[in-house]
Amino acid sequence: MAETIRELVSEEEVEKRVCELGRQISEDYAGRQVHLICVLKGGVFFMCELAKRITVPVSMDFMSVSSYGDGTASSGVVKIAKDLDESLEGKDVLIVEDIIDSGRTLSYLIQILEKRGPKSLKLCTLLDKPERRVKPVTVDYVGFNIPDEFVVGYGLDYAQKYRNLPYIGVVEGVE
Ligand SMILES: O=P(O)(O)OC[C@H]1O[C@H](OP(=O)(O)OP(=O)(O)O)[C@H](O)[C@@H]1O
Ligand SMILES: Nc1nc2[nH]cnc2c(=O)[nH]1
């Protein structure tokens, strides 16, 4: 069977939800600066769109933590491929992720970042698959809870493809 993509969340729905999250974050961080941490590569589309909707001062940094490689199942081994450039000391830090699945990546990342002295540390994810959780993670902002299906688009890949889709879709026709 050929590889195809079935739309799960439309471009319009994603845009609307990103605006709502931006508004909520702006209210919650009123009078403060929020330091966004983008988890590469998947989080980059979401972080850019979200940052544009936040009305309090924003600073940004990037980190790459990988546990999936080219497959559809987490290896369970989390590697830091690129660390942050700046210190988190005294900052109101908001991690921006594309998806939380088993929770392995984020529980590991939060453990590391908490030790770096942020004033606060919160988590925002575009997508969450709560029924897949292996490691507990506290999620402060969620775009959409989705079922247990492997999704692509809006930054998410399958073997590095489909990140550029403007909507969220499910890959069909793969093992
Ligand atoms: O909750 P988990 O089961 O740990 O899965 C979530 C992680 O998987 C994806 O990253 P991936 O390793 O695919 O890297 P990428 O963002 O560079 O595609 C996603 O961006 C999360 O970081
Ligand atoms: N692309 C992609 N990466 C993931 N990482 C964890 N779950 C997923 C998923 O459903 N799709």
Provide the helix percentage: 10-25%
The global form is globular
- Put simply, the count of helices is 3
| Chain-averaged pLDDT | 93
Q: What structural class do helix, strand and pairing data support?
A: alpha/beta
How many domain regions?
Answer: 1
**Could you please say which CATH topology applies here?**
Rossmann fold
The helix-strand sequence is EHEHEEEHEEEE
Strand tally: 9
Subcellular location: Cytoplasm
GO molecular function: guanine phosphoribosyltransferase activity; hypoxanthine phosphoribosyltransferase activity; magnesium ion binding; nucleotide binding
EC number: 2.4.2.8
Keywords: Cytoplasm, Glycosyltransferase, Magnesium, Metal-binding, Nucleotide-binding, Purine salvage, Transferase
Protein topology:
Elements: E1 4-9, H1 11-28, E2 34-40, H2 44-53, E3 58-66, E4 79-82, E5 92-100, H3 104-114, E6 120-128, E7 141-145, E8 151-152, E9 168-172
This protein binds 1-O-pyrophosphono-5-O-phosphono-alpha-D-ribofuranose and guanine.
1-O-pyrophosphono-5-O-phosphono-alpha-D-ribofuranose (PRP) binds at residues 39-42, 66-68, 74, 97-106, 157.
Enzyme class: transferase
EC number: 2.4.2.8
Family: Belongs to the purine/pyrimidine phosphoribosyltransferase family.
What key attributes describe this structure?
single chain; 32% strand; alpha/beta; binds 1-O-pyrophosphono-5-O-phosphono-alpha-D-ribofuranose; three-stranded antiparallel β-sheet; binds guanine; 175 residues; 22% helix; globular
